[in-house]
Specification:
heterodimer; A: alpha+beta; Arc Repressor Mutant, subunit A; SH3 type barrels; 4 domains; five-stranded antiparallel β-sheet; four-stranded antiparallel β-sheet; 14 strands; extended; B: five-stranded antiparallel β-sheet
Chain lengths: 320, 316
């Protein structure tokens, strides 16, 4: 859910143009549901609906508009039961065409969805592409994703998820020995071309997230998944750890660190930033620092700082 | 809004005079004595912002003198404005679009996707079986993206400061942008670099300042098939560049590189598109991987490791 922001005039106009077709399509809808659909607060929705009733066709030759020249709603329903019903409409009933950018955003999303095995077939995608092209008011800017071909592990996980059975596999976490896991799949997260399986781990008896590149020997079991309906916690939270780390870098390096800083508290002074965050595993810091080749300095914990120097030195030793 | 309703309802169009004296909003201003000049300015502004929202406002000029706008009539042709009557979306299509529209992390694209979905759902919200179990995400952190997208849509030449790794200061590039491409999790803009008159692909993370749209435009036909050309170009680069690596089995490096690797006589061969980014990745693996060749890549990895060691107090 997006954050609720105050509406600026152009946003409001864009929403109003979509509001009429939405309300007519719904027939009767609660204030709360409509507000949710439009990402506004119920109060903002009420005021949008109220404004609608002063909109209408131009008056004729100096006369004021007649009542049926204006949009109207059932005021009793709105005031007493927070329900919206349009009782008179003077146009705008059919949804506007998609803007080029709206079409582009959906087309790019479709390319990503298409990389998921079993979600939609070629015909479905082709039909959608044609409809979006015809339904857009301008030619969208081409936004192209290079998606990777699906490998056997991804295929099997998708299959297990659909069939609702547990999977078993060997898991190799970074800097740890391999373990054998049985997991009830709950959700597959796909980000930056990486696939993550979130599910109920029989070994840990808890929800866990597994990077599929670290998974091998995956098999579908005959065990019905009993945690498939489990509320999946926000998967970003599952990585938060106990070690408090502090790193230092030039302010303009921050974009290079990407989502690493999402949960960090940031302190910038004269172009130098110090970020403090929790990490699950302090060994991961040496990989972070080496990747940035001298642009990112690990300050704390002291052991992690030493580990970075040793890590880099061990790497260099291979070239002597 | 009153303006849109009025302009859609008319077939032959309304003159500016009619609009300013009869459409609510202008009419009250007009009756309370606002100057004609102020009203016309208001009308021009409203017209522009509606066009910005994708409302096609048509100007029907004088046949004899098309430049004479005094008697011009304005209207919104509903065929241009509305989703075509014969477009319907099946429940399966809506389910897929809902999944597709939800991929964008918080950005201009997520707002656009939600707004596009709303319009489609207004035709009839039919999803009976949502696609669950999959949560694909696309992240978009590059501030250059929206301006480039706008420039592509309107086929306008852009300039932006571009910082190549190893160069001390950014250099301004002049580009006809043709497509935006995500490759290996990073966003690029593909276009024609007007200073070298050749196709180029720029990494958005290296666009270090604002993207400026210039007045110069280019033939939109150049955009056709640009995305495919960009991908083919990146694939060709990856084909030409390949590194020979020795990897310690069972390590993080072995795991992460395996997906991209081909077995070789002495280790593995891994293609790459950008030597700087690949050197970053290989440096992160520390002692888990050794670069055999090319020398260029090998030297860059060594530089990164040495700088990292020195920054953290040197060798123990």
């Amino acid at each position: 859910m997006t954050a609720r922001r105050p509406l600026v005039a152009t946003d409001r106009a864009a929403l109003m143009l979509q509001l009429v077709p939405y309300l007519i399509g719904k027939g009767e809808v609660s204030l709360a549901e409509a507000a949710d659909e439009f990402d506004v607060s119920p109060e903002q929705m009420r005021s949008m609906v109220e404004k609608l009733t002063v909109i209408g066709l131009p008056g004729d030759r100096g006369y004021w508009q007649m009542a049926n020249d204006l949009f109207d709603i059932d005021w009793d329903l709105l005031d007493e039961r927070d329900l919206i019903v349009i009782t008179n409409s003077v146009g705008l009933e059919r949804a506007p065409k998609l803007t080029a950018r709206e079409a582009a955003a959906l087309l790019a999303g479709l390319q990503l969805a298409r990389s998921i095995p079993g979600v939609g077939d070629t015909e479905l995608y082709a039909g959608l592409l044609a409809k979006l092209a015809r339904g857009a008011s301008g030619t969208p800017a081409e936004v192209i994703l290079a998606t990777e071909p699906v490998d056997a592990v991804r295929d099997l996980v998708s299959d297990a998820l659909r069939r609702g059975v547990a999977v078993s596999f060997t898991y190799k976490a970074p800097d740890a020995a391999p373990t054998t896991r049985t997991v009830d799949p709950v959700k597959v997260h796909i980000a930056s071309g990486q696939w993550y399986l979130q599910g109920w781990c029989h070994l840990r008896e808890a929800m866990r997230t597994f990077h599929l590149d670290r998974v091998s020997d995956l098999e579908l079991t005959g065990i019905p998944s009993t945690h498939a309906g489990e509320q999946a916690p926000d998967w970003f939270d599952t990585d938060a750890g106990d070690v408090v780390a502090r790193i230092r870098f030039a302010e303009d390096v921050a974009p290079l660190l990407g989502d690493y800083l999402d949960r960090a508290s940031i302190d910038t002074f004269e172009g130098v930033t110090i970020a403090t965050m929790r990490v699950a595993d302090e060994l991961s810091l040496r990989r972070l620092a080496a990747r940035r080749g001298g642009l990112v300095e690990v300050l704390e914990p002291a052991a992690a700082r030493r580990a970075v120097a040793e890590w880099a030195e061990a790497g260099l030793a291979q070239y002597r | 809004m009153n303006l849109v309703v009025a302009l859609i309802a008319t077939d032959q169009g309304l003159t500016k005079d009619t609009i300013l004296t009869s459409v609510a909003g202008y009419r009250e201003q007009s009756e309370s004595g606002a100057s004609k000049d102020a009203l016309e300015k208001m009308f021009e502004r409203d017209k522009e912002s509606l066009r910005g929202l994708g409302v096609p406002i048509e100007t029907i000029g004088d046949w004899a003198d098309p430049d004479d706008l005094r008697e011009a009539r304005y209207r919104v042709p509903s065929a241009e404005y509305e989703l075509p009557e014969d477009i319907e979306f099946t429940p399966a299509e809506q389910a897929l679009l809902t999944l597709a529209g939800g991929v964008w992390s918080e950005s201009s694209m997520s707002d656009d996707a939600r707004s596009g979905l709303r319009k489609i759902r207004a035709l009839g919200d039919l999803v009976d079986e949502p696609i669950i179990g999959f949560s694909p995400r696309l992240s978009l952190r590059d501030p250059a993206f929206p301006a480039l997208q706008q420039a592509i849509e309107s086929s306008r030449v852009v300039t932006f400061p571009y910082l190549k790794p190893g160069e001390g200061a950014p250099r301004t590039r002049r580009v006809q942008p043709l497509a935006l491409v995500e490759y290996e999790g990073r966003w690029h803009v593909f276009g024609i670099d007007l200073d070298v008159h050749a196709d180029r692909t720029f990494l958005l993370a290296r666009v270090v300042g604002p993207v400026a749209l210039t007045r110069a435009s280019f033939d939109p036909a150049l955009r056709e098939g640009a995305g495919e050309r960009a991908l083919a170009g990146l694939d060709a680069v990856a084909e030409r560049n390949s590194a020979l690596l020795e990897v310690n089995p069972g390590t993080e490096a072995a795991l992460r590189l395996a997906r991209r690797a081909q077995p070789a006589e002495q280790g593995i061969r891994v293609p790459y598109v950008d030597v700087h980014i690949f050197a970053d990745e290989l440096a992160s693996y520390g002692p888990e991987v050794r670069v055999v060749e090319p020398v260029d890549l090998r030297d860059r990895v060594i530089d990164r490791l040495a700088a990292t060691r020195d920054l953290h107090g040197g060798a123990a």
